[in-house]
Each structure stands twice: as structure tokens, then as C-alpha cells.
């Protein structure tokens, strides 16, 4: 088991390295020269050369890539002499736009994205699984058909439509909720909750619909298994039969899907965060793309890749614990 | 002989798009204590539906008529709550495919234990001791350790042994075995058959043995019920039925058996 985990982690590192190289190639080699952008309108060739040198852009590509990677692991220095700036590990460089440390920007914004992701996940898990379960148990009923019809429709509403509609109805028209603002929980819990409620709802809707359909299908499939007939033939109570024999086999595959969905969300909900003006990783990504802020684009890409790949490893490890048939030798 | 199970004019009906269909029609038979009765018939003849009707486990939508009396008490029409006490405690069942009949997510020990605890007031520790004893009885080696194994960690024959251990853990008066050896290798079939016959004799359990293999019936059953398309075509003493089949269908079944030496089976 320990060797399996070590192997998976090593694989994770190699994959991340590949993603690094690939994204670096795309964002720094194939994009417009950042020195020209930083330099602005009143630019001289000397000034451009100076900026290029201070950013290390005058060096060969492989050296630049090497510096970036070593910056991630051990930190790096920018400039020289009195202008020397020390960027501690994990160094993701400085924003061309704001000159802020990209690492610091991520540290500041990650809690917002995490709050959005966790809240939405709680909502969609509870609603999706409960609705799916009820549908499966009452298969073919009025409830089942209504819920599944809604789930089919709900899953196909684009997030921005939902976000703008909710915002218009709840904030502008009915004025039930304030305009979202990034207050920390400790300052004003109520406002905090009200601010996050819409993003949670928007993100949770699509997933809840998906999970309801998934849960329903899995539970119906499990209820038809031979071992359910065995459980009934043993004289077990319906509650125990359902809880022990049906739920675990039916819900275990959902853990995998949930892990992947949640990990992807941690990398930022671009549209939702932008619509509601939440300063999370998603909004940071959107802003950096709009302004071609390469170090930030690079960083959010790496971060998202990291979450997805790490989520994959976590889910696989979890699965070996949840399904006895998947044991590693 | 006092009869343990008496089935009279049992009819099982399913609603279908082409109207109601009787998958079991007016079937009557009886099983004495300490007796094995065979039910034979080709695929789809209603053997499983007859067995499931006795257990009260027919698929939703099925309706029943007639009478099923276990130990003199009528089972048909009993609410599920009451049938639950019958299942496992007075009558239990083993199925054709032991792998899919066991829940892959739980150890076999737990699956036997939960059945015992559903019917007997006892601590988990006591139940565990019973589980080990039950596994020993069906010839599982190292039963203490194997109780902690999952179904996929056993061979096909061992899985069926586990099913048998589970079915008998509450010492039911009646055991229904629905093609318990069909999914197994020939040599393993013989072992399982031998085990079932041995345990049946030892415990005095009444057994309904469902199969489409007449050779198997002749080696373990005293009475036999031959079914064809839901109807009972022959019922009586096994030796007599085999020696002088009165119905063409039975004759056809008999002729379809390749000659087997009965000695090999047991
Ligand atoms: N839910 C159902 N609705 C309608 N008909 C059904 C249903 N389930 C089973 N049947 C029919 O009942 C008949 C008897 O089925 P049964 O399972 O008892 O056969 P069997 O003798 O056990 O066959 P096998 O040897 O293949 O197990 C079959 O013709 C089958 O098509
Ligand atoms: Mg059958």
C-alpha cells in the first residue's frame, strides 16, 4: 500500500512537471512579448531590453524554464544588485499587471474559491443524492417523473444565465439579498452567508441535477442486484436492507465523480465568480486572461491542473478503501 | 409423514402488456420434515417463481392464488412484516449464482452474522462464534480467518458453501435450493450436492431442490415435481416417476440426460 501511494505521488510529480513545461511553452513562448506590454506607450528599445533582462526573458528558453521550475521548488531571485528581489518558494513570479507576488495572490484568493466550492458541494450532494434516492425508491411515480424532468432541464441551463437571472430576481427586483461583497465570515456572518448564497446555488444547480440522475440510476441498478434478493430472503428489516446493502454499492461510484468535480471547482469557478464579483481564483483567471498577465495565467493553469491530478490520486486511494474488490497488491 | 410444507393449487400471475399471464398454474406439492423434494423442468417453466412464492419474495406486480402452509400456518397473504420473521428463521433459500448473491462490499462473516442477529437476540461476539461454527460445518478451512474475507476472495464452490452456511445459520425447518450447483464446475457440483444432502440428513431440514437436471434429482430427492410452462405435469415418488413416467414431457426430460453414473454424483 505504501509503495502504491509513493508510486502515485511520483506519477503526480512527473505529470505536474509535464504540465509545467507545456504551459510554459504556450504562455511564454507563443504569446506576445510581455516586455512590450509592460513598457507601455512611451517605450524605448533600451527600456524593453532592460525589462526583458530583469524578467530573465533574454535568456534561452530552457534556462528560463529551468529558472521557473527551480523557483517553484526552492525560490528565485529577480534583478540584481540593489534591485534584487527575493521570491521565496513556491515562487510563481510577479504579476505583470500589479507587480504582486502571484503566490500571494493565490493565497489571498484560494479561500474564496474554496468557500464557493465547499458550500456548493454540500448543497448539491444533499439535494442531488436525496432527490435521486427518492426517485429510485419511488421509480415511475409522479415524484420520480417530475424530479427527473427538472433534473434534465436544470442540468442544461448555462451557469451565466442562471447567475444573471438569480441576481436580477433576488437582488435587483425582489431585493431579498444584498449585492454580493467579499466580507469575511468573522466580520459579518449574515452578510457573508448572503453573499455566498447565490454563487452556491448557481454552482450547485447543475451538479445537483447531474447527481440526482446518477444516484437514481445507481440505486435502481443496485436494487435489482441478486444480493438484494438475498438480503430480503434473510429476513433483514427493510431499513437495514436499504442502508447497508443498497446504499453503499450505489453511492461508492459517486465518490469518484464527486472527487473529480470538487477538485476541478477548487481551481476556480470562472463564470460564477466573475458574475458575482467574488475575488476568487476563477475571477483572477478571467482578469489575467483579459490582460494577458502571463505569470498569473500560468499559475492558475498549474493550480487547476494540480487540483485535478491530486483529486484523481485522492479518489483512487479512497476507492481502494471503499470497494473491497479494488485492493492493491 | 407429517408434512412441513404444503403447497396447494398455487398460481402466480404477472400482469403483462398482453394481459395477465400465469407463470405458475395450479401447482400442488408437499415436503415432509427431513425430506428432499425435487422440482424439475426446463428453463422458464416456473420453478423459481414457485420457490420465491413460498419465500414471499416474488417480484413486485406478481399476484398469487392458492395456499402455501408452512408447519400448518398459511403464508400467502401475510404482510411483509410477518413474512420477515419466517424468512431466514423458518425457511431460507440459496440461489444459483453465489457470487452475485453475496454483497461484494461486506465480509462473508458480517453477511452471515447480520442474518443470525436479525432473528436471535445476542451479542456480536456470540454471533461471531455462531458464524465460525457455521463456516466450519460447511467445510470452509480456517473459518475464523475466512469469516473476514470478502466474497470475491473465495472460489465458486466455497461461495456456495458460504451461502449454505448462511441459509442454515438459524436452523430453519425448510431450505429451498434454487439450482445451487448450476453455476459450478462439475466436480464442485458433486461436492456441493454431497454437502447439501449430508447437512439435510444431519439437521433434519426439509429441502426443496430445484434443478433442470433429472440425474441430480434421482440421487437426492424422494419426491419429484415436474413442471412445464408453469404447469405441474407430474408429481410423486421419485423412483416411480423415473421408472414409469406417465407424461411425454417427463420422458423427454429423461431421454435428454446423457447417461451418467449416479454414484459419481454423490
Ligand atoms: N417480472 C416478470 N413479469 C412477467 N413474467 C415474468 C417475470 N419474471 C419471470 N417471468 C416469467 O415467468 C416464467 C417462469 O420463470 P422462472 O424464473 O420461474 O423459470 P425457471 O423455471 O426458474 O427457469 P430457469 O431454469 O431458467 O431458472 C418465465 O417464463 C418468465 O418469463
Ligand atoms: Mg430459475
Automatic annotation (TrEMBL), chain A:
Gene Ontology cellular component annotations, sorted alphabetically: plasma membrane
Transmembrane segments: 9-27, 114-137, 149-170, 190-210, 250-276, 296-319
One Pfam short name: BPD_transp_1
Membrane topology: Multi-pass membrane protein
Cellular location(s): Cell membrane
Keywords: Cell membrane, Membrane, Transmembrane, Transmembrane helix, Transport
UniProt GO BP: transmembrane transport
Predominant place of localization: membrane
Entry keyword Ribonucleoprotein: no
Residue intervals of the ABC transmembrane type-1 domain: 110-319
Family membership: Belongs to the binding-protein-dependent transport system permease family.
Protein name: ABC transporter permease
Automatic annotation (TrEMBL), chain B:
Single annotated GO MF: ATP binding
Locations listed in the record: Cell membrane
Sorted UniProt keywords: ATP-binding, Cell membrane, Membrane, Nucleotide-binding, Transport
Alphabetical list of Gene3D superfamilies matching this protein: P-loop containing nucleotide triphosphate hydrolases
A biological-process GO annotation: peptide transport
PROSITE patterns: ABC_TRANSPORTER_1, ABC_TRANSPORTER_2
Membrane association type: Peripheral membrane protein
Domain ABC transporter: 5-254
GO cellular component: plasma membrane
SMART domains per UniProt: AAA (SM00382)
Keyword Transferase in record: no
Family, per entry: Belongs to the ABC transporter superfamily.
Official protein name in the record: ABC transporter ATP-binding protein
Amino acid at each position: 500500500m505504501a509503495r502504491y501511494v509513493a508510486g502515485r505521488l511520483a506519477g503526480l510529480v512527473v505529470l505536474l512537471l509535464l504540465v509545467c513545461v507545456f504551459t510554459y511553452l504556450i504562455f511564454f513562448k507563443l504569446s506576445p512579448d510581455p516586455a512590450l506590454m509592460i513598457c507601455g506607450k512611451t517605450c524605448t528599445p533600451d527600456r524593453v531590453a532592460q525589462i526583458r533582462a530583469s524578467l530573465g526573458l533574454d535568456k534561452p528558453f530552457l534556462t528560463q524554464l529551468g529558472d521557473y521550475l527551480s523557483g517553484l521548488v526552492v525560490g528565485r531571485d529577480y534583478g540584481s544588485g540593489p534591485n534584487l528581489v527575493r521570491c521565496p518558494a513556491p515562487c510563481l513570479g510577479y504579476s505583470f499587471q500589479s507587480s504582486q507576488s502571484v503566490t500571494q495572490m493565490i493565497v489571498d484568493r484560494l479561500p474564496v474559491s474554496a468557500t464557493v466550492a465547499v458550500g456548493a458541494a454540500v448543497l448539491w450532494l444533499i439535494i442531488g443524492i436525496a432527490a435521486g434516492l427518492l426517485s429510485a425508491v419511488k421509480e415511475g411515480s409522479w415524484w420520480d417523473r417530475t424530479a427527473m424532468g427538472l433534473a434534465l432541464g436544470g442540468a442544461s441551463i448555462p451557469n451565466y444565465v442562471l447567475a444573471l437571472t438569480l441576481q436580477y430576481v433576488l437582488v435587483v427586483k425582489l431585493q431579498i439579498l444584498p449585492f454580493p461583497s467579499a466580507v469575511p465570515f468573522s466580520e459579518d456572518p449574515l452578510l457573508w452567508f448572503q453573499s455566498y448564497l447565490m454563487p452556491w446555488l448557481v454552482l450547485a444547480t447543475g451538479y445537483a441535477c447531474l447527481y440526482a440522475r446518477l444516484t437514481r440510476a445507481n440505486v435502481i441498478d443496485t436494487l435489482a442486484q441478486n444480493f438484494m434478493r438475498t438480503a430480503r430472503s434473510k429476513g433483514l428489516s427493510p431499513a437495514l436492507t436499504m442502508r447497508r446493502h443498497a446504499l453503499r454499492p450505489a453511492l461508492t461510484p459517486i465518490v469518484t465523480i464527486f472527487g473529480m468535480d470538487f477538485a476541478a471547482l477548487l481551481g476556480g469557478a470562472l463564470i460564477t465568480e466573475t458574475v458575482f464579483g467574488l475575488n476568487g481564483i476563477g475571477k483572477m483567471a478571467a482578469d489575467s486572461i483579459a490582460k494577458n498577465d502571463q505569470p498569473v495565467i500560468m499559475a492558475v493553469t498549474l493550480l487547476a491542473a494540480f487540483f485535478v491530478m491530486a483529486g484523481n490520486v485522492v479518489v483512487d486511494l479512497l476507492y481502494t478503501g471503499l470497494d473491497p474488490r479494488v485492493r492493491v497488491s | 409423514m407429517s408434512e412441513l410444507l404444503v403447497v396447494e393449487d398455487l398460481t402466480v400471475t404477472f400482469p403483462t402488456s398482453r394481459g395477465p399471464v400465469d407463470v405458475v398454474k395450479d401447482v400442488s406439492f408437499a415436503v415432509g420434515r427431513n425430506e428432499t423434494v425435487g422440482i424439475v423442468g426446463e428453463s422458464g417453466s416456473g420453478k423459481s417463481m414457485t420457490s420465491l412464492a413460498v419465500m414471499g419474495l416474488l417480484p413486485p406486480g406478481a399476484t398469487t392464488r392458492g395456499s402455501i402452509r408452512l408447519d400448518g400456518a398459511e403464508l400467502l397473504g401475510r404482510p411483509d412484516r410477518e413474512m420477515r420473521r419466517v424468512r431466514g428463521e423458518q425457511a431460507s433459500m440459496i440461489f444459483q449464482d453465489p457470487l452475485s448473491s453475496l454483497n461484494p462490499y461486506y465480509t462473508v462473516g458480517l453477511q452471515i452474522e447480520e442474518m443470525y442477529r436479525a432473528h436471535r437476540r445476542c451479542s456480536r461476539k456470540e454471533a461471531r462464534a455462531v458464524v465460525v461454527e457455521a463456516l466450519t460445518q460447511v467445510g470452509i478451512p480456517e473459518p475464523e480467518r475466512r469469516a473476514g474475507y470478502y466474497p470475491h476472495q473465495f472460489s465458486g464452490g466455497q461461495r456456495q458453501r458460504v451461502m449454505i452456511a448462511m441459509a442454515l445459520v438459524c436452523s430453519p425447518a425448510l431450505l429451498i435450493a434454487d439450482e445451487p450447483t448450476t453455476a459450478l464446475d462439475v466436480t464442485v457440483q458433486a461436492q456441493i450436492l454431497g454437502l447439501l444432502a449430508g447437512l439435510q440428513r444431519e439437521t433434519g431440514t426439509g429441502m426443496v431442490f430445484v434443478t433442470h437436471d433429472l440425474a441430480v434429482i434421482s440421487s437426492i430427492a424422494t419426491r419429484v415435481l415436474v413442471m412445464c410452462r408453469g404447469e405441474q405435469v407430474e408429481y410423486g415418488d421419485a423412483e416411480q416417476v423415473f421408472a414409469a413416467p406417465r407424461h411425454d414431457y417427463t420422458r423427454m426430460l429423461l431421454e435428454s440426460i446423457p447417461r451418467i453414473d449416479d454414484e459419481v454424483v454423490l
